[in-house]
Design a protein that fits this description.
Layout (H helix, E strand, L loop, with lengths): L1 H24 L7 H26 L27 H18 L1 H19 L10
Helix pairs in contact: 1-2, 3-4
Length: 133
C-alpha cells in the first residue's frame, strides 16, 4: 500500500498544481473548473491518507512484500448482501437528484428524500428483520 499511497500523493500534487496554473491562466474568473480540479487533488490526497492509515493499522500487505504470494490475499473482505434492493433504490434516487438539477428544485428535493431513505435502509439492513444482529 505504500507504493499506491505515494502514487496518490503525487497525483494529488499534480492536480493542485494544475488547478493553480489553470486559475492563473483564466485569471481566476472561471468558477466551475478551478474548484473541481482542486477537489480532485484533495480527493487523491484523501485516498493516499487512507492507504497510509490502513498500512499503519494492518501492516505491510503482500503487494509491498518482496516475497509476497497471491495466496496471502485470501480471506473474507466483508459482508455483502446479494439479495439487497437498497443499492438499486439509491441509484434511482441519485438519478432523480441529477434530473432535478435540470428540471426543477421540486424534483431535486424528491430525489434527496428518496436517496436519504434508501441510504438509511441500506445502512441498517442487517439491524432489523430476519438478519438482525
Amino acid at each position: 500500500m505504500k507504493v499506491a499511497a505515494n502514487i496518490f500523493w503525487i497525483i494529488g500534487l499534480f492536480f493542485i498544481a494544475a488547478a493553480t496554473l489553470y486559475g492563473f491562466w483564466v485569471e481566476w474568473t472561471e468558477w466551475a473548473g478551478i474548484p473541481a480540479i482542486y477537489a480532485v487533488g484533495g480527493m487523491s490526497w484523501m485516498i493516499a491518507w487512507y492507504l497510509r492509515a490502513a498500512e499503519h493499522k494492518y501492516g505491510v500487505g503482500p503487494a509491498d512484500d518482496e516475497d509476497g504470494q497471491i495466496v496471502e490475499y485470501a480471506g473474507t473482505y466483508g459482508t455483502f448482501a446479494p439479495w439487497s434492493w437498497w443499492p438499486l433504490g439509491l441509484g434511482l434516487g441519485c438519478a432523480i437528484i441529477v434530473t432535478g438539477l435540470a428540471v426543477g428544485w421540486w424534483v431535486f428535493i424528491i430525489g434527496i428524500v428518496a436517496a436519504a431513505y434508501f441510504t438509511f435502509g441500506w445502512v441498517y439492513e442487517f439491524s432489523r428483520g430476519k438478519y438482525a444482529h
